[in-house]
Structures are given as structure tokens and as C-alpha cells.
Amino acid sequence: MDSSLLSRVSDLENQVNYSKPGEDHLMIAGLATFGFVANKTTNTYQGESSVSKTNSLADADNYEFSPMFLWRHGNKFLMEFEPSLNNDQVSVNWAEVSYFAAPGLILNAGYLVITFGIYPKRLAAGWIDKLATDPFGVAGSPPTTDYGIEAEGGWQAGTMKFSYDVSLTNGMQLLPDGELQGATITDNNNNKLLTGRLGWLPFSNSSLELGVSGLTGKVGDQGSALQNVTANMYAFDMDLVENIQPFQLNIKGQYNIMNLSNANYIDPNDPTGNTKYTFTNHSTTGFIQASLRPTLSNNNVVKNFEIAGRYGNYTTPANSMWGSKSNVLTCGLDYWITWRTVVKFTYEAIKSTNTSAINLGGTPGAINQSNSMYLQTSIQL
Amino acid sequence: MKILINKKIKILLALGLVVSTLVELNSCTASKKIEAKSGAQLWAENCQRCHNTPSPSTFSPEQWKTIGMHMQTRALLTDKEIDKIVAFLSQ
After folding, report:
1. A72 contacts in B (CB within 8 Å)?
2. pLDDT beneath 50, residues of chain A
3. A123 close to B (CB below 8 A)
């Protein structure tokens, strides 16, 4: 056989071998969000008001760059890592290993996004959220990332579907003034936080999902006076998508109820640390959001517009140091450049009434009115 | 306190009973309609629950396989659903 032909065949074989997919695959996805925000804040207390105005191109509220590394190892393992430039620092959104153990059973371990409600794990990404801001309170209360293990999955039951998610994590940390903060890599006690969610999709076209979540665990530092304080939290969520010619209607909502058992907290105004105070450590937060897009319109420009509106509230414990009651109205108009690239114009009004304890240096009755306008672009990479 | 815990356990048991009854009743119906769904139909129904439906041309078949696993951890789709959706997107 002609040596040049053999050489050509050999080259082709090498090319084929090179292009074989193999068992592993590494890719980078992620998102970037950039925008402009103008804000006017009015503070009113005991009849006196002060006003401040700001505008900014990129600040903590409207800039994020988060490359997501997805590393598939065969058909059973997936490693995910999402660092993020946000809030003027590089942080990690999540870093976990998933093992696809069996149909309807995925085991995860690492730094997880805890499934408490539907928003943090599924709807928070800038290119998914229809509005430029997160729902006030819901996005970070309670903290939604933690170190631990998790089992999750979904299964078909006739025409309905169910999903479950159970995690065991280090848990949150209770601060001496009664506030909760997210976990650090060093656990603050020997107790673990148990979180679970059950999702139910009653219709065969998966258009409606209803979810209920629960969370329980001790949150006080080991050996401290607060070591037996327990957090018990519940969340209810819903997600409805209906195509009503020529529109697509999206309604999403979540309501969190957060309770901590009674405790005596340390008054930070007393340098000796001997003065204690107590309050009912009960918080609630929720939102309901609707959006409408004429996805089935024949007009190629009109079909890319979407309007969205959201009402939210966030109530933190009265007579605590950070007690307040907030109502939030948000509305917006989006334009979808592609299925994963959006330009959002959002207006948000937040009215917060202070309910903190006056004997702790609080200013009960003070009103904070914040009005913001956002122009934001978000892209999924 | 003990009474409260007992009440919670009863509520959980009642919820469990309601859910399992619903599952049992619903499972009695042979769901050929579900089994017959194509990848395209499942793609249209499930992706839009959270975000716009992705264009198949966005990623390569290998990438769709990886993204499919990622999406399964997020949306908790069944194995059959994700297999059909990935096959459709990989065409």
C-alpha cells in the first residue's frame, strides 16, 4: 500500500481518537450582571426628615460576575464550583460534588445551596430573575449556603410529580444580640441543621409546583449561654407557568416563617456584658411575583418584552436591636435579547418602619423610605 | 412542650398519609400520556418553570449532557425526563 495513504489513514485515526468525547467533560458556564442604579432615601424620625440621593454604575446591588465550573466525571459524578465577584470581594456561591446514585436519588456534599423554599436555588440568578433586585428578605433570610451533605431527587407518580430535598449541614450561628448569620467553615457547635423540602407538581404538564420546607437545629455557640437556642423555620412556595395565547404568565411566591426559642441576649451597649434583654425572636418574609410576556406574538420585537411586578414584606423581631417592618413594591419592564440575555428596567420602593427597642438605643417609629431605579443587563454564559 | 411535639408529629403523619394516598390513587392511572411525551415537549414544559427555554444550538451534545446533570440537581427532574430533554437538545 502506498506509504502516503498509510500516513493519511494514520492521521485520520489520530484525529478520530482526539475527537472522542471520553468520560470526563469540563465546561464553564455562569453569569454576568452589570447595571446602573439611582436611589433616593428619606429618613423620618420624630417629625424630622433627611434625604440622600445616590447613583452608581456598578455597586454591590447591580454587579456580579460568576463563572460556573461544571466538571462531569463519567455519568455518575458532577463537580460544581461557582466563585463570584460581588459585594467588592471574591466569594464562593457554591462548591459541591454530586453523585447520581440511582434514579430519583442524587447525593451532594460540599458547600451547598440549601433548599429552603424555591427562590435561592432556582430563581436567584440575574438572567432568571425577572426583576433587577432579589425579593427583600427572602434571598438571604435565613442564610442559604452551608457546608454539609444532601440527598435529593424527583419521581413520577402517575400524572403527578414529586421532588424531595433533605440536607444536614453545620448550621447557622446565633450572634449575642439574637441575630443569625451564615455558617463558616468552622462549626460553632456539635449540633447539625436539618433542612428539607417536598415539592408537588399536581398537573401532568408540570405547570404548577407547590412546595413546603422545614428547617430545625440548634444555633448557639457551644458552651455559651445560648447553646440550647433552637431555630425552627418553615417556608411555603409556589411556581405557576401558564401559556394563555399569546402570553406566558409566570407567578412565583414564597413565604418564610422563622422562629428561635426564647433566650436572654447580651446588651451590646453595656461594656460589662452583664445586662441582658429578651424579645420574641420571630421573623417573617415573603413575596409574590407575576410577569407577563407575549411569547407567542407574531411580532419579533413585541414578543421579547416582559412586564413584571412583585410585592414583598419582611418583618424582623420587634423590640430587638434590628426590629423593623418593611413593605416592598417592585415593578419592571424587560427586553430579552436572547433566551439568556436580558435588559431590565426596574423600579423599587421600600418602606421600612423601625420597631427596635428604645432602651437598646433603637429608634422605634423611624421611617425609612427608599426608592430606586435600576437599569441592568444580565447574561448567562 | 411534650404536647406540642406530639401535635407536630400528628400533623406530619397526617400530611404523610395525605401525600401517600394521593400518590397511590394517582399511580393507579396508567400514565401512558406521560411515557409518550417527547423530549421537545418535556423541554418546553420543564425549562420554562424557571427560565426561558434554551435554544438547542447553544451548546454541543457533550455540553448538554453536563448541563443536564447540573439542571437535574436544581430542578429535580426525573431520569427519564432529563434523558429525553438532553437527547432533544443534542440533535
Report:
1. 65-66, 69
2. none
3. yes
